[in-house]
Design a protein that fits this description.
The protein has about 600 residues and is α+β, with helices and mostly antiparallel strands. About 30% of the residues lie in helices and about 25% in strands. Strands 21-20-19-24-23-22 form a six-stranded mixed beta sheet. Strands 6-5-4-27 form a four-stranded antiparallel beta sheet, with no helix packed on it. The longest helix is centred in the N-terminal third of the chain and has 16 residues, at about 125-140.
């Protein structure tokens, strides 16, 4: 991971690094260069009742805040006593800050004290100390790429203070971590103080937000609301609309929401009573695993049968879509946005051979686009005659053919424009049938060497439009999406991994993806025999269903070891849905598709 502080010029002379020790050595001047200031104090500064004797000249030379105070004719210019009342400043941080300006580089900055010093440095605008704090914080965050439990509060606090201080560099460095741990962030005191209603709505609407439990997220939001009820109450309805409140126990909802002031809002009343009503007939017809969307509802659709089928979570069954337009052939693989499906269609095996497109389509695989708004399929121009995979990432459609890859840059249907991406190396060693997955900023591709039959692994960075050098020494995995948001890698005999963090770690530390480096990214299992099922896994003590590429939590009251995936893996006797199937899409559908 690139050090953003280095990129923005915060390290003088370039260089940098992820080691805190290295950063400290660069920032600490040599002993003979240090300025020891043992001067008599002519003023006292009071911080939360604690008195510090200081010299006004030293403070004025090291801090823009004190320079303005002592030289601009303010009341404090002639007063001996100065009281700092900023709620972010505490005596411990001010003491370390004084030591740092008296002897630059002398204070050992760690996760235990650096945030307090940073607050004082930001308030007083002491640029040297501020510079050192930001560089050291960056190094501390980068040195904990696996984000262990002990570092969670620190990283969340860094993000919160970076937002409060408008530090884009540190915000970008910690944003992904907050998106992955939003429930924990909502309980963090620094986060509660810094993040207002508008910013929280922006975080909750993020496409890469990871939510493991709607109940935990709800309790975190209520904790954030209670931090300042008067200021945050106006945002409550809009925030709750982003949650699937039916997954939160009714007792929990009543305990937290049944308040007189809340009940005076008509929109809140409708939301509240809809959430606690257990009658299935009036519940929204959307799967329980899918996050609520303000734009509409999404359904899991499969193309394994002659007609499209959708999964109804409340009934735990697959149903046909009688009003949906039949695909123009056998769908091999597909990828989807909220309102569009992009599919590779094998036109030599059409659903209905009497259709006109069956005559001129030949034996090649074609790209087709399905629009939810029009309920129609349209063929797209393809830059290759026989593509073998495709995926949609960061608003861009990517198309693969063996070792080549293109991204869509514009146009529509038969006039689609494509731009070829950087080619893989070892172009003669990969079988034509490759498989690709994307999440965050990475596309990972798997193939097999023609001669040795070894697995070929490539990682493409869509932000830099280049392949990252990274080795892979594991078995070929099955990759699925958790709730359509987060992606996990299932490797038989090894476990289940957070592959995105694993890839980032290996790239930044020049390591190989093997059992040793992957140990830190194994998702916890409880050892139950149920996890051995190829259609159900346990993550952090909770049983998840695997349906094609989608991984989700079922209704807890109907789940036990005997009925795991009894219905959802079977559509008909001879048709089964297997983990990793790429002919399944999560999509919004028109009402007419169900009629």
């Amino acid at each position: 991971m690139e050090n953003p502080c280095q990129r923005d010029g915060l390290f003088r002379g370039g260089g940098g690094g992820s080691s805190v020790k290295t950063v400290k050595n660069k920032l600490n001047p040599k002993p003979e260069e240090q300025v020891q200031r043992h001067v008599k104090g002519d003023k006292i500064v009071v911080v939360d009742g604690n008195v510090f004797s200081v010299n006004s000249i030293v403070l004025a030379t090291q801090s823009s805040f004190f320079q303005s105070m002592f030289t601009s004719g303010m009341i404090e210019t002639n007063e001996r006593k100065v009281v700092l009342k900023d709620p972010l400043i505490n005596p411990k941080g001010f003491r370390d800050w004084l030591a740092e300006i008296s002897s630059p580089g002398s204070v050992d900055l760690t996760t235990g004290n650096i945030l307090d010093v940073w607050k004082v440095a930001n308030f007083t605008q002491s640029h040297w100390v501020l510079h050192r704090c930001k560089c050291t914080i960056s190094a501390l965050v980068l040195s904990y790429l696996n984000y262990s439990t002990s570092i969670k509060e620190f990283v969340i606090s860094v993000y919160s203070l970076a937002y409060l201080f408008d530090d884009k560099c540190l915000q970008n460095l910690t944003r992904d971590f907050v998106s992955d741990n939003v429930s924990e962030a909502l309980h963090n005191s620094e986060f509660q103080n810094a993040i207002g209603g508008g910013k929280l709505l922006e975080i909750l609407k993020a496409r890469d937000l990871l939510v493991l439990s709607e109940e935990e997220l709800f309790l975190g939001i209520m904790d954030w609301i209670n931090f300042d009820v008067i200021a945050r109450e106006p945002f409550l309805v809009d925030i709750l609309k982003l949650l699937y409140l039916h997954e939160v126990p009714a007792a929990t909802l009543k305990e937290n929401l049944y308040r007189g002031k809340f009940m005076m809002d008509k929109q809140f009343l409708e939301l509240y009573f809809s959430a606690i009503d257990e009658t299935k007939e009036i519940r929204p017809r959307r799967p329980a695993y899918q996050r609520c969307s303000l734009e509409g509802h999404k359904f899991l659709v499969t193309f394994k049968c002659k007609r499209p089928m959708y999964y109804e979570h409340e009934e735990d069954k697959w149903h046909p879509l009688p009003g949906a337009t039949v695909p123009p052939g056998r769908i091999i693989k597909c990828t989807s946005t909220f309102s569009t499906i992009y599919a590779l269609v094998k036109s030599t095996n059409p659903v209905d051979s009497k259709q006109p497109w069956a005559e001129d389509s030949g034996s090649f695989t074609k790209i087709w686009e399905y629009s939810c708004q029009t309920n129609k399929w349209e063929q797209l121009y393809s830059p290759t005659s026989n593509p073998d995979d495709l995926l949609y990432l960061q608003g861009t459609l990517y198309l693969m053919d063996n070792w080549r890859m293109w991204k869509r840059v514009g146009g529509s249907h038969r006039f689609t424009r494509w731009s070829e991406c950087e080619r893989c190396d070892r172009v003669d060693t990969i079988y034509r049938q490759t498989i690709s997955f994307g999440f965050g900023k990475y596309i990972i591709r798997f193939g097999r060497c023609i001669k040795s039959r070894k697995i070929i692994f490539k990682c493409y960075d869509v932000n830099y439009n280049t392949y990252r050098l990274i080795g892979y020494q594991m078995a070929r995995p099955i990759i699925v999406q958790k709730g359509g948001v987060h992606s996990v890698m299932m490797i038989d005999g090894s476990g289940i991994y957070d592959w995105y963090k694993w890839v980032k770690y290996c790239i930044n530390n020049d390591e190989v993806m093997d059992s040793k480096s992957g140990a830190a990214f194994l998702l916890p299992q409880d050892g139950s025999p149920r996890q051995q099922s190829n259609r159900a896994i346990l993550l952090k003590g909770k049983l998840h269903y695997v349906v094609g590429q989608t991984l989700f939590l079922p209704n807890a009251d109907r789940t036990n070891s005997k009925n795991v995936c009894r219905n959802i893996t079977k559509i008909k006797k001879k048709v089964s849905i297997l983990p990793g199937d790429k002919n399944i899409a999560s999509i919004s559908l028109l009402r007419e598709c169900f009629l």
